Structure formats: structure tokens, C-alpha cells
């Protein structure tokens, strides 16, 4: 939807239209982008908070993370080496995500 302002030119009696379509469009794009980042961060945060992850400390190179259900099915044993799977502290990841969310929310879009 394009917005416009109508002003009447008194000397000619004509109407002059000032269109704000592109202006609004730009603002919309910026807001959509912000919303997208915000949503992605929230989804990731929810995921990290909702899931306890387990990993094998013995397999240092393995970056495989198991959520509770997977770890449970594996009897909390690493499928590669048989070592016990230990719960990963994902508090740091959660803190980083929360900080980034706070920054995103403080960032006010202004194109004036
Ligand atoms: Zn292992």
C-alpha cells in the first residue's frame, strides 16, 4: 500500500501528490529483517533452553550433540567409543543468545 499526501496548488487548482511508497517499503524491509533475526535468535534460544545436550568427552573431535531422547536411547553411552555421555553446559550459549536478543531489541530502526 502506498501512502501519499495530497496538496492543492492554489495557483493552478491542481493537486500535487507526494508519494511515500518507496520510503515505506524501505522501512518495511528493515523491519522484516530485524524481525527475521529476532525470530531466529528466539528459536535458537528456545531450542537450547528446551534441550539438554549430551556429548562424549572422550571423542574430542566429535562435535555430535545428543538431545535427551537420543542419549536415553543410547543408554548415555557414546556410540563410537562406549564412554559415558555427559551433559553439556549450554548456559554460555544461552547467555550469548540472550545478549544478542537484547541488542536486537535495543536497535531501533530509524531512517530519518
Ligand atoms: Zn566417544
From TrEMBL:
Pfam families: TFIIE_alpha. GO terms for biological process: transcription initiation at RNA polymerase II promoter. Residues 1-99 form the Transcription initiation factor IIE subunit alpha N-terminal domain. InterPro entries: TFIIE_asu, TFIIEa/SarR/Rpc3_HTH_dom, WH-like_DNA-bd_sf. Coiled coil: none annotated. This is Transcription initiation factor IIE subunit alpha N-terminal domain-containing protein. It comes from marine sediment metagenome.
Amino acid at each position: 500500500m502506498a501512502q501519499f499526501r495530497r496538496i492543492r496548488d492554489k495557483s493552478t487548482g491542481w493537486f500535487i501528490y507526494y508519494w511515500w511508497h518507496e520510503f515505506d517499503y524501505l522501512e518495511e524491509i528493515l523491519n522484516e529483517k530485524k524481525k527475521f533475526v529476532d525470530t531466529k535468535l528466539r528459536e535458537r534460544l528456545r531450542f537450547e533452553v528446551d534441550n539438554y545436550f549430551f556429548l562424549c568427552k572422550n571423542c574430542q573431535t566429535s562435535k555430535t550433540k545428543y538431545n535427551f531422547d537420543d542419549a536415553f536411547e543410547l543408554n548415555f553411552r557414546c556410540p563410537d567409543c562406549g564412554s559415558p555421555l555427559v551433559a553439556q553446559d549450554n548456559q554460555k550459549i544461552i547467555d550469548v543468545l540472550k545478549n544478542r536478543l537484547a541488542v536486537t531489541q535495543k536497535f531501533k530502526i530509524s531512517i530519518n
